Structures
1.
Amino acid sequence: MTNEECKKAVLDIIADIAPDEDLSNVKPDVRLRDQLQLDSMDFLDIVMELRKRHGIEVPEADYTRLASLDSCAEYLTPKFNALAAKS
Amino acid sequence: MNSGAQYDVAIIGAGLSGLAAGIRLAHFGKRVCIFERHNAVGGLNGFYSLGGRKYDVGLHAVTNFVPSGVKGTPLGKILRQLRIDRDEFALCPQKGSRVAFGPDGGRVLRFTNDFALLESEVASHFPREAAGFQRIARFVRESPLSGGPAGASARAFVRESISDPLLEDMLLCPLMFYGSAREDDMDLGQFAIMFRALYLEGFARPLEGVRVMMRVLLEKYREAGGERRMKCGVRSIVVRDGRAAALVLDSGEEIVASQVLSSIGITETGALMGRPPSGARTLGYVETISVLDRQPAELGWGDDTIVFFNDSDRFTYRDPVGQVDPRSGIICFPNNFEYGPGRGLAEGFFRVTCLANYESWAGLPEDGYRDCKARWFGAIQESAKRFLPRLSPEDALARATVATDMFTPTTVEKFTGHFRGAIYGAPDKNPGGTTLLSNLYLCGTDQGMLGIVGSMLSGISMANQHILRAPVAVA
């Protein structure tokens, strides 16, 4: 998986948990909560969806790594790839 | 965690908060079961059928209504967190409501779902108070959706900005009637929640009432894999080592769950552990319901959605000395929402709600209870009619009435299990939801959020904070 595909996977999740948000212009280097109405509960949903859909576990200590799309990609892409390599 | 546990989470009570918490937890893969003593879901916002007609128990209007596209609101939050599409709740906005004070209802503040109307009403009827009113609105806008810390007095706060006691009472009256568990005052946090819910946001209703919302919640809960056991009350909580070690059901069966969420109230939950009731004064209500053979507007009553009335110099919000305090109350016409062209309730409904004293209803023998109901039914309606356009002929209401029903605090206690029929629970709320037991949490009325949307938000936030553990600040 590439960084771009990873960002797409995260955006797909956000589209489902926040259907009322416009996601067409999300800036990858800006914190998600600074450009979208997402609170800590919504981040919890992102974490849950990552586990449910992709089998990726994000421990609480790492939640800050999900701040922006860029940081998501940096943190999650290796996890996606590690899972793909295992299967 | 607990190797013998049958469930990760047991929820006591299948009202709005319990169901919302259940959906949330089941979504996150928790093994969750809701235990409900009644045979129907809904709790204080239940529904029933009588004589072939459908009635709502609590719902006058869903507060906190905002149209699609308004962000950062309680309604938006619950829709998101429960994965509910706005259209599923099918909420239709109110036509318009008013506060009517004075012996003939001559002092009026109208309000709708557009806050600008209330602003202009205050500015034109209380010109010297307009700036103070704006200050209050600003405070509420800046308050957290959860209302903030408990304890402060809303009246004291309002008096800092408003000097006319009439306006103070007129603004507080709807907020207290729709959500104060305290006599003659409100907790400031509750005030902020209710001011937002009623004035900044507004009223709506699904055409078919609260059962529409209940159906949606049940469907989501089932889809997410949640279990539900009806007619299956929790008789006691077994306490061991500072934990809720097990729940004993009415049948005697024991249930072990790692965590327990109780939506039944602070005192009611304490009673499951053998604690005596706190003796706190709670507030009860009576409601009269008349079913009409025509729309209220056709009878000559116009199209008010809700009317909050008071005939006296000051607005008294106390446990009445007699059985009922008919001086003030709430009139609700469920017909008067914008259901859309060609859609509406086939029959008219006229509901009037007043404060009532629990003890004076609870101690009555059956025929005495029936007589009191009959007597108060008429008195309450007569009181309310003073605040509506006069009907002609005089007996037009009686002629149009095809069915009636009435509930008292004892009815509420019987069907919801809330002690003394307290609709808004204990006077002192527990916003944190924690208890003396490390794995027992509260949600619902006594956690502090009120109304249909508030109840759901309560269940969601308690599930998030205590069981799913949303970090306080993330990213």
2.
Amino acid sequence: MDVSVVFPSKNREKYVRKAVRTAFKARHVKEVIIVDGGSSDNTVEVALKEGARVIIQSNLVYPGKGVAMRDGAYFSSGDIIVFVDIDITNLTPQFIEKLYTPIIRGEAEFVKGCFGRAAGRVTELVAKPLLRMFYPELARFKQPLSGEIAGLRRVFYQVEFEDGWGVDIGLLIDLYRKGVKIVEEDLGFKEHEMKPLHALTDMAYQVAEAILKRAIRDMKIDEVWAKKYISTISEIDLGRAGYA
Amino acid sequence: MRSIVIGGGHLAYFTVAALREIDPKGRIIIIEFTSEKVEMLKKTFPYAETVFSSIDKVEEYIIENRSLIDVLVSATDSDALNLRYAKHSIKNEVPIVIAILNNPLNEPIFIKEKIKYVINPYKTITSKVKEIVNKFRVNMIYEFSKINAGIYALKIEDAKMLRKVQSFILKNDSPFFIVSVDDRVRAGSVENIQVGDVVYISCLDKDIRSFIEKIREGGG
């Protein structure tokens, strides 16, 4: 089985060389793809020099993580597609191999990576409570928002990708609903840049929206109420409401 | 003419309408990936055939029908797919293969991958804004797709530039017309060009390139 490794990125010149080289060292990897968000540095040039295939994500909105992942999936030709964050400083070929090994062994069709550290703030405060409410069967995942995933190509083509930060939770719910065999694989320790708190606001909102949209679709929640809630939540003035 | 349009969004909408206008009796097949969109497309384009396909089956469809296809336009909302399908179609010798970009930043990548006909819908924004605001001495107004030529607008700022432009037109026998300061169109000979006019010249890129560089450097 051939493996395609996809790195969504923007202005990651300092990480791209190592990431591409490391990915090529992993067994079965036939191609490395950089889906660029419109870098102003030399990310693209370095990636091409290292032998990666490069495509710019289809929209100019950044971060459009879901669009970048979708384009990466569509651009790839391997039987297995692996998505990895480009800014992991302790990335090794073994880290990448661990992600797709359960698929090669026939134990899974989709693998969600998890790490030996506490899950992130959006995971603990938004994703997990909402999953417990609407998809309790998925509450067992330690890190449901993890961006380190692997899956059979045909599996990714069965579902639609959310445009933004809701993509990871959206994929998890939709693939579970389709009966895809999913396992969570402990990848050890991941060292990378932490997002500042303000950058998490959009992420939290988009994750909540992705879960609620699916809860409506799967008739787990009243549609009228939920749509009203989704449409107004981003407009609530937290200061005036006394939440600041 | 038999055409295939891949995708069912905005880009495909204008593509299908243009193909219909070019050949009202031609056969147009639209390939789309979501069943809801297929139903909508059937109503929007009753004269076209709509095919519901999975993303991975499109390449097979192209191979099976390659001897019947005159034009293939990849107009999905993913540039990754458009590049993939365009490359596959060229490999399978489809006579005319066109890819439409969602993100203009992908244009150099498509050109590098030898996609001859790449439509960048955003390009008109740049040329239109330049033409309307007209702050530069030279603006490229239109770039032809099949030949390396274009239409350029040259603003005649002084007598020196006037002489240069007149000499360029005569030397290259370039078709042109003149637009006065009050936006009136004038035709006629090179002698009719005056300082303050904008001259629209159609010419080959290779002929005008060095001339433009000199003008831009202020050597008009």
